[in-house]
């Protein structure tokens, strides 16, 4: 059974809701940390750190996601679900068309996950909020970059069908 499983997808596709349901079912889950980074920057007067300084934002995400990855290495839980993985960082930078330092790429490549589920764009559930800067059209583009990034890294992505939260979680659990 895969140990480290990533749930990825563009903004507003239901990843965090699925992670919450997996947690309720007593699975170990690593939460999305970009909201924490964004909220901390906002408390320091930077409305959207990702847009103001994408490299700094990405380096903070890299640090946090790498810590999650390393924590997972020491846990006996199987499986462990991640709300986004390290490759999401380069996908978002590619979406912006920004060159990034080689250590980001090296860190991503050195820390593989065993399985990746991707959630497709879904207009019916997409919502805006204070930490999300992307509109739905951008979310669709980000989905493409995520798919390409993970594919280039050799991952075979499993697409989670659009359905109820319970059915989506059941699908994930049947496919691990």
Automatic annotation (TrEMBL):
Matches recorded under InterPro entries: NadR/Ttd14_AAA_dom, P-loop_NTPase
Pfam families associated with the record: AAA_28
Domain of life where this protein originates: Bacteria
NadR/Ttd14 AAA domain ranges (all copies): 4-166
Protein name: AAA family ATPase
Organism this protein belongs to: Namhaeicola litoreus
């Amino acid at each position: 059974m895969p140990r480290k499983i990533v749930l990825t997808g563009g903004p507003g596709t239901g990843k965090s809701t699925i992670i919450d349901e997996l947690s309720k079912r007593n699975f170990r889950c690593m939460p999305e940390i970009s909201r924490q980074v964004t909220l901390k920057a906002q408390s320091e007067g930077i409305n959207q750190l990702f847009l103001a300084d994408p490299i700094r934002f990405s380096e903070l995400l890299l640090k946090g996601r790498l810590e999650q990855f390393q924590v997972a290495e020491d846990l006996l839980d199987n499986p462990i679900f991640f709300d986004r993985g390290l490759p999401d960082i380069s996908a978002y930078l590619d979406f912006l068309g920004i060159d990034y330092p080689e250590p980001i790429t090296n860190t991503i490549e050195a820390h593989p996950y065993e399985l990746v589920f991707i959630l497709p764009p879904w207009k019916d559930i997409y919502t805006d909020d204070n930490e999300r800067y992307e509109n739905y059209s951008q979310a669709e583009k980000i989905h493409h970059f995520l798919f390409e990034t993970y594919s280039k890294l050799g991952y075979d992505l499993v697409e989670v069908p659009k359905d109820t939260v319970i059915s989506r979680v059941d699908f994930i659990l049947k496919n691990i």
